[in-house]
Design a protein that fits this description.
The protein is globular, with a radius of gyration of 15 Å. The chain has a 5-stranded mixed β-sheet. Helix content is 30%, strand content 24%. With 157 residues, it is α+β, with helices and mostly antiparallel strands. The chain contains 5 helices and 5 strands; from the N terminus they run βαβββαααβα. The relative contact order is 0.25.
Length: 157
């Protein structure tokens, strides 16, 4: 297998592991990130349909190969309910989803990564709405899936 970049959801810890479990269970097929985390000037490039990456958990274990199927850039205020539901985090309303995501985007960890301790989002913040699919489960995925069986929901929030 060629060398692929890691697909890291959230920061290492319970949230990442819940998101990874949802991906492995097939309930998470989309994600939303801040467009400003990507740039074409030497930073992380915007993903494109067909791009592949290695899904890793908090322990950096490679669990699956993901493939981007669709990318949309848009305003945060235009994220639709189907995209929210496809994120697989259990949110049934846009308000629930938005509150949970704002909690993450306004966290000291993300603000530190962005280098802006007062960063906030609003309806006009540009976000990247990404759809993906699992194309291959790697050997460690079975261990990870077994570890989450019976442990309750894989809800991120």
């Amino acid at each position: 297998m060629e060398s692929l970049p890691n697909a890291e959801f959230a920061f290492p810890g319970p949230l990442r592991d819940a998101l990874v479990a949802a991906i492995l269970a097939g309930s998470k097929t989309s994600t939303t990130s801040l467009a400003l985390q990507y740039d074409d000037d030497g930073g992380e490039p915007l993903p494109r349909p067909g791009d592949r990456s290695i899904l890793v958990d908090s322990g950096e274990r490679p669990l699956a190969v993901l493939e981007v199927t669709e990318i949309r850039l848009g305003r945060l205020g235009t994220v639709d309910l189907q995209h929210v539901r496809d994120e697989g985090e259990g949110h049934e309303t846009l308000e629930e989803w938005r509150a949970a995501h704002e909690e993450f985007w306004h966290s000291s960890e993300l603000r530190g990564v962005l280098g802006d301790p007062s960063f906030t989002v609003d309806d006009d913040t540009v976000v990247l709405m990404e759809r993906f699919r699992v194309v291959e489960l790697l050997p460690a995925a079975e261990t990870a899936r077994t570890a989450t069986d019976g442990a309750g929901s894989a809800q991120a929030r």
